[in-house]
C-alpha cells in the first residue's frame, strides 16, 4: 500500500489502525486482521532484543526487520499493509544528509515511510527527505530516544510545553511531514493539534480524537510485564492472536479504543 491509498481511507472517514510488527509471520497475521499500518518500531530493542531502551538498536537491525515485515505483508495485488519504519537513534540527528542515507536504506528494505523523533529542530531534515521522495512521519510528545533526558513519562502537561508542542507540530507539517505521531500527551492537546493540522495524526497515549491509533503489538497480546497505562490487552476472550488483533482493529475503527481509562 502506498501513501495515497492510506490517505483514501481517512477521506472515507475511517480511523487508521497501526501496530508494531517485526517479522514476516506477524506481518501476515496483522495484514489479514485488517491493520492499516505496520510500524517496524525501534521498540524491537525492548520487545525482541530484551534491552531496557531503544537506544542500542542499529540501522542494520531496522533494515533486517523491515525486510522481514515487507516480505510478510506483500500481496499479489499490491494491497498489503502500509509499512512505516523508525530511523534509529544516531542514524539521522547529525545532518539531513545522514538522515537521507539511513532513510534510503529503510525504503530499499521495503518501507513506505520513515518515522523520526523531534520537534521543529527536525524540520530541515523532514523537508530534505520529503523533497527527495521519502515520506515522513514526525513523532512528538514522549520521545523514547530521548529517555535519558525526559524519562518514560507523559509530556506537554503544562501550558508552556503544550504551546511548544503545538508550534513543533505546525513546523513539522510546514516542512512536509505527511503524518504526525503523538505519544503520551494530554488528550485535550492531541485533539487541538488534530483539529489545527491538515495532516493525519496517530496517537499512542494521546486520546481518542486522533486520526488513528498505534500500540506495541506485545501490549495488545498481553506479553508486556508492565504495560503502559494507555495500552490494552486484547487477548482475554480471544480465540487466537489474529482474533485479538481483529478486536483491536474493530475497537479503533469504531472509536471504542482508547477509552477514558487509557487517556491522560
Task: Explain this structure.
- The chain is α/β, with parallel strands linked by helices.
- It has a single domain, classed as Phosphoenolpyruvate-binding domains (TIM Barrel).
- Helix content is 41%, strand content 14%.
- It is built from eleven helices and eight strands.
- Strands 1-2-3-4-5-6-7-8 form an eight-stranded parallel beta barrel, surrounded by eight helices.
- Helix 6 links the parallel strand 4 and strand 5.
- The longest helix is centred in the middle third of the chain and has 17 residues.
Summarize the structure.
This protein is α/β, with parallel strands linked by helices and 264 residues long. Helix content is 41%, strand content 14%. It has helices at 3-11, 24-32, 44-47, 59-73, 96-109, 123-130, 147-150, 159-175, 187-196, 217-220, 241-254, and strands at residues 16-20, 37-40, 82-86, 113-117, 136-141, 179-183, 201-204, 212-215.
What is the third-level CATH name, the topology? TIM Barrel
Percent of residues in beta strands?
Answer: 5-15%
CATH architecture: Alpha-Beta Barrel
- CATH class equals Alpha Beta
Q: How many distinct folded domains?
A: 1
Amino acid at each position: 500500500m502506498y501513501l495515497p491509498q492510506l490517505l483514501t481511507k481517512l477521506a472515507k472517514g475511517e480511523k487508521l489502525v497501526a501496530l508494531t510488527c517485526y517479522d514476516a509471520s506477524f506481518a501476515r497475521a496483522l495484514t489479514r486482521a485488517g491493520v492499516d499500518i505496520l510500524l517496524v518500531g525501534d521498540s524491537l530493542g525492548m520487545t525482541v532484543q530484551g534491552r531496557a531502551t531503544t537506544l542500542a538498536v542499529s540501522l542494520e537491525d531496522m533494515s533486517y526487520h523491515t525486510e522481514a515485515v515487507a516480505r510478510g505483508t506483500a500481496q499479489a495485488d499490491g494491497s498489503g499493509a502500509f509499512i512505516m519504519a523508525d530511523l534509529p537513534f544516531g542514524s539521522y540527528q547529525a545532518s539531513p544528509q545522514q538522515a537521507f542515507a539511513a532513510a534510503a536504506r529503510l525504503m530499499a528494505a521495503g518501507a513506505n515511510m520513515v518515522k523520526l523523533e523531534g520537534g521543529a529542530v527536525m524540520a530541515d531534515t523532514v523537508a530534505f527527505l520529503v523533497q527527495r521522495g521519502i515520506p515522513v512521519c514526525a513523532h512528538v510528545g514522549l520521545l523514547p530516544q530521548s529517555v535519558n533526558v525526559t524519562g518514560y513519562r507523559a509530556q506537554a502537561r503544562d501550558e508552556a510545553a503544550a504551546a511548544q508542542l503545538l508550534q513543533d507540530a505546525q513546523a513539522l507539517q510546514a516542512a512536509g511531514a505527511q503524518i504526525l505521531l503523538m505519544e503520551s500527551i494530554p488528550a485535550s492537546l492531541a485533539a487541538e493539534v488534530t483539529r489545527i493540522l491538515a495532516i493525519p495524526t496517530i496517537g499512542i497515549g494521546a486520546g481518542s480524537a486522533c486520526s488513528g491509533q498505534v500500540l506495541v503489538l506485545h501490549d495488545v497480546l498481553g506479553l508486556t510485564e508492565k504495560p503502559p497505562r494507555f495500552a490494552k490487552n486484547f487477548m482475554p476472550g480471544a480465540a487466537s492472536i489474529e482474533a485479538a488483533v481483529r478486536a483491536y482493529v474493530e475497537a479503533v475503527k469504531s472509536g471504542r479504543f482508547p477509552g477514558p481509562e487509557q487517556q491522560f
